[in-house]
Design brief:
Elements (H helix, E strand, L loop, with lengths): L2 H22 L8 E2 L1 H8 L3 H13 L3 E4 L3 E4 L10 H8 L4 H26 L2 H19 L3 H18 L3 H4 L2 H13 L9 H16 L2 H22 L8
Antiparallel strand pairs: 1-3, 2-3
Helix pairs in contact: 1-3, 1-4, 2-3, 4-9, 5-7, 5-9, 5-10, 5-11, 6-7, 6-10, 7-9, 10-11
Length: about 240
């Protein structure tokens, strides 16, 4: 890649890393008009860099560009809330507990069903991978190594979603990865992995390997409900929340 293109890409990433979270956090509320020339000045970059960043935000449906108007922040209901970057930016904001609870509720609706399907559709290789990952999670849990635990936890849930045989569920792997990462990075989980949760992952792997769909679904639901309980302890909803 030519040096100029590499530099432009780096600048575009920097603008996205600042402007994206500002929009997602509500610092630029829906209806706010962001003018290209003002963005150039604010971030000290060229019009080309700003336009590249805006194109990415448009693809995420966070903004829309109109001739002679500028770049307008769209209504929250129109955002692509499944985009991993949008999830990451929203979890970085003040509304983090509610966002994390919403995403964990989504997991509770999807992952148990995916685990049940995986019990009937997982390949031998996927069954072996789940067994290995569950063992690695157990080892990381005993060592209280949250970083290693996170890596194996993400991989475990990706395999379950992929092993379901449902391409829609499989595409949620990035969403779940962002949820698990955000929970860890923002200290919304216990300082050491919950031994009960670790055991449940081991049992999910066993249920999938043995083809027990009912057990796989039930055990995965226990994992997701446990994550919601953990949130209720570490980030309780304010009184009067809907």
């Amino acid at each position: 890649m030519p040096q100029e293109s590499a530099e432009t890409g780096g600048l575009h990433s920097r603008v996205l890393a600042e402007l994206g979270p500002a929009i997602a956090s509500g610092a630029h509320p829906p209806g706010t008009v962001l003018r290209i020339d003002e963005l150039e000045s604010r971030y000290g970059v060229s019009r080309t860099v700003v336009r590249e960043a805006v194109r990415v935000l448009e693809a995420m449906q966070l903004v829309e560009s109109r001739r002679r108007v500028g770049v307008t922040v769209r209504r929250t209901e129109e955002w692509n809330v499944f985009d991993p970057a949008v999830i990451r930016w929203r979890l970085a904001g003040a509304d983090r507990p509610r966002q994390l609870r919403s995403l964990t509720t989504l997991r509770t609706a999807v992952e148990p069903v995916a685990a049940g399907l995986a019990a009937g559709a997982a390949s031998p290789a996927q069954c072996r991978e789940l067994t290995v990952l569950a063992a690695e999670m157990a080892a990381a849990g005993r060592a209280a190594d949250l970083a290693a635990y996170l890596v194996h936890d993400i991989a475990f849930h990706r395999v379950v979603l992929a092993a379901s045989g449902n391409e829609m569920f499989a595409r949620l792997g990035d969403v779940v990865a962002e949820v698990l990462t955000g929970r860890t990075e923002h200290h919304l989980m216990f300082t050491a992995p919950d031994p009960e949760a670790v055991t449940l992952h081991v049992r999910v792997a066993e249920a999938v390997r043995s083809g027990d769909a009912a057990a796989a679904e039930r055990l995965m639901r226990e994992i997701c409900v446990g994550a919601l309980r953990e949130l209720d302890i570490l980030a309780p909803e304010p009184a009067g929340s809907p």
